[in-house]
Write a structure and sequence with these properties.
Number of strands of chain A: 11
Order of helices and strands of chain B: EEEEEEEEEEE
Oligomer: heterodimer
Number of helices of chain A: 0
Distance between the termini of chain B: 40 Å
Strand content of chain B: over 45%
Radius of gyration of chain A: 13 Å
Mean pLDDT of chain B: 93
Helix content of chain A: under 10%
Mean pLDDT of chain A: 95
Shape of chain A: globular
Number of helices of chain B: 0
Largest interface: A-B, 25 and 22 residues
Chain lengths: 113, 112
């Protein structure tokens, strides 16, 4: 089966624009995670879904960040009024269950100009 | 949440030399995972260690989990150019966030 897919792969946004990043997890994976990875750093946790329930959003850096997974499959990470500091790679990962190995998508590289 | 310190940050080796990266925590870990990220790629799961003193091998890679479950290491024997990338340890955040907390990674650079 296919792995985790993300779109778009690259996004350039002007400061102040809203962006929406999409993640298609592996079919049947209950758990879905979003991470933010700055250049040369490790991924940093943003939010976690179990099916459609967002169980943890403690890593979201501000209220401009919003994530949803309405049908327990595809997830969207939305960033409102983008700022330069939002420039990073946004990684989505899915797993069979929370404590199992995570399968990462290729990421979306967001550049805010 | 839990934090892990990973050293070294960079490691230059000649092809054929061995390589080791270390991950340390001040608190006892329930488990630890290791991921590899190639340049321009995404993290790929390598292994999960759960038991105290556990040692697991994957071909030239040897993973260890300390007896106190506060540290872990990844050792690569006779590095090859395909081993280039960044190796991350990652731990669950315990009673805090549900996601993984990643170390800063060790960037392995191999000179042919």
């Amino acid at each position: 089966g296919a792995g985790v897919s993300q779109s778009p792969r690259y996004k350039v946004a002007k400061r102040g624009q809203d962006v929406a990043l999409r993640c298609d997890p592996i079919s049947g994976h209950v758990s879905l995670f979003w991470y933010q990875q700055a250049l040369g750093q490790g991924p940093e946790f943003l939010t976690y879904f179990q099916n459609e329930a967002q169980l943890d959003k403690s890593g979201l850096p501000s209220d401009r960040f919003f994530a949803e997974r309405p049908e327990g499959s595809v997830s969207t990470l939305k960033i409102q009024r983008t700022q330069q500091e939002d420039s990073a790679v946004y990684l989505c990962a899915s797993s069979f269950s929370r404590d199992y190995e995570q399968y990462f998508g290729p990421g979306t590289r967001l550049t805010v100009t | 949440g839990q934090q892990v310190m990973q050293i070294p940050q960079y490691q230059h080796v000649q092809e054929g030399e061995d390589f080791t990266t270390y991950c340390n925590s001040s608190t006892t870990l329930s488990n630890i995972q290791w991921y590899k990220q190639r340049p321009g790629g995404h993290p790929v799961f390598l292994i999960q260690l759960v038991k105290s003193g556990e040692v697991k091998k994957q071909k030239r890679l040897t993973f260890q989990f300390g007896e106190a479950k506060k540290n872990s290491s990844l050792h690569i024997t006779a590095t090859q150019t395909t081993d280039v990338g960044t190796y991350f340890c990652a731990v669950g955040s315990g009673g805090g966030a549900d996601g993984l907390t990643f170390g800063k990674g060790t960037h392995l650079i191999i000179q042919p």
